[in-house]
Amino acid sequence: MADVDELDGLLAARLRVVLEAEGQRREDIAHGMALLGFRWTGNTVSQVINGRRGLSVLEVAGLCEALGSPLLELLGPEAQVTLPNGRAVTADQIANAVSTGGGDWQARATVRALFRQDADEATAKAARRLGAEPHEVEEAAEALWGRPLSAERDGRIKADDVDLNAPENRRTLQARRGHATRPLIEELRTYFAERQQ
Fold it and tell me: 6-109 — its CATH code?
């Protein structure tokens, strides 16, 4: 089954409307995307509008450029999409989140809860080792690296041609995460010490 979410489905429906209303052909949209460097064909457009192919963020931006329509206009401001936590957000909120980082989806702490469980575990473990609260570790990670501890940890892990997502390599991934976490804990420890001075 294709990796298509509710937003992809909404975009597919809107692209069908564009094709009908403006008399464009699938090849016209594909040509516009190809001019931007995307390897799109009429078949690619068919897959998208029939919900058999998802879109990357860059492809969504490319469609907006190729069609000369901002995201909000393409989606329709009243359209709604359901987030993984079950909350519905409007196209206006989605466009605002993309353009400003502030889509007013929910409070920041609640949105953070959507991060993977191991991110929460990494933060909780670090907090215990540092004698701090998890929210303090989250704030320190944002200040130091501009992203959560787990994201910084995973960014520092070198894959070295090993598929770390393969089931047989879970121990390798766990070991590399442990090795990458140690210096991060020390950076956090230094950060907290400097703040106390």
Answer: 1.10.260.40
Token pair for 183: 């210096």
CA distance linking residue 176 with residue 155, whole number of Å? 11
Q: Per residue, what are the HEC states of 49-100?
A: HCCCCCCCHHHHHHHHHHHCCCHHHHHCCCCEEECCCCCEEEHHHHHHHHHH
Using the CB atoms, write b or e for 142-177: b if 16+ within 10 Å. Answer: eeebeebbbbbbbeebeeeeeebeeeeeeebbeebb
> CA-to-CA distance for 165 and 174, rounded, in angstroms?
11
Domain boundaries defined on the chain: 6-109, 117-196
Task: Please write the tens of the pLDDT for every residue from 98-155.
Answer: 777 766 665 444 444 444 444 578 888 888 899 988 888 888 998 898 888 888 888 8
Q: Which structure tokens are listed for 165?
A: 């997502």
Q: What are the residues whose beta carbons fall under 8 Å from the beta carbon of 103, sequence distance 6 or more? A: 89, 93, 94, 95, 96, 97
Average per-residue pLDDT in the chain?
Answer: 80
Q: pLDDT tens digits for 165-194?
A: 555 566 777 788 888 889 999 999 999 999
- Are the beta carbons of 153 and 143 closer than 8 angstroms? no
